[in-house]
Amino acid sequence: MTPVAVTEIKLEFDTPQFLHALFANDPRNLRYLEKRLDLRVVTRDGWVLLEGDPEGVEKAKTVFRDLEQAKRNGSEIVERDFKLAVDVAAGGGEVGLTDLTEVRLLGLRGRKPVMPRTPHQLEYLQAIEKHDVVFGLGPAGTGKTYLAMAMALTMLKKRLITRVVLTRPAVEAGEALGFLPGDLKEKVAPYLRPLYDALHDMLDPEEGQRYLDDGTIEIAPLAFMRGRTLARSFVILDEAQNTTREQMFMTLTRMGEGSRMVVTGDGSQVDLKPGQASGLVEAERALNGIEGVAFVRFSQVDIVRHPVVARIVEAYDKHRGGQAVRG
Prior knowledge:
There is one protein chain. It is built from 13 helices and 9 strands. The chain is α/β, with parallel strands linked by helices. The protein has 2 domains: 7-101, K Homology domain, type 1 (Ribosomal Protein S8, Chain: A, domain 1, 2-Layer Sandwich), CATH 3.30.1370.10; 119-319, P-loop containing nucleotide triphosphate hydrolases (Rossmann fold, 3-Layer(aba) Sandwich). A 6-stranded parallel beta sheet has the order 6-5-7-8-4-9. Strands 1-3-2 form a 3-stranded antiparallel beta sheet, with helices on one face. Strand 7, helix 11 and strand 8 form a beta-alpha-beta unit. The longest helix has 19 residues, at 54-72. The radius of gyration is 23 Å and the shape is elongated. The termini are far apart.
């Protein structure tokens, strides 16, 4: 029986602190590397020793080089980043952590810029740059709306557009809203709260309020879109699975010259009344393959909230026999 070849490589880094930062300052993450690539990993001082079959060692070497480049690009490596670098190397994927950290969008002063954290998020941002209409589809927590808003504000700062329009349907519009105090805008304000939260996370309060006051940024219920033509605007339609077929068609046809639109939602989480067809589901079928329109589909692996959230979603999904988990 031919013995299995074993390779041993020692990688050295500037300081122990720099090396520890590459695995998120948690030695337990190295166990993940050992398990995924079937290696033995030993680290001490400013070096790490990789031992195993030649292919696995070479992939682990690629992992550390990817992490090192991302760190030198100014990124702070967290557990998710480390595991992504390992998974990409293990699966032979083409998008590494370095590719993700090279894309930087608007960041609030004193905070880090907004960057894609998964290959699908990178694909999403690249699609928004290249296409007039982009559908971001998938579960909650995958960054669909947040990244779209970061891209919109970045383009606004670069003066590629003159206005950002954020809208989402209020699925209970009708009798339920009639009992609430105030005018229509006040009635639907609770449904628009997530959009305000994301906006305030990216802009200084004074700047954000100024944009809202002068109409540079408009947050409005979907009903306010009817009859308008939006030129040089970046339109984000959020929670689009709760649009009717007529609402979706109406919104898509509001685009004017120099505009682009991002539609986000999850076709498996429709909250419309029984028997009412979702405009998002119809759009997926009708617009597939149309020039200028792109679809980017996210999955549970793209959830970028607390790491346990993805595990909770997956556990519930299994418990419910594959039925969609709401979020």
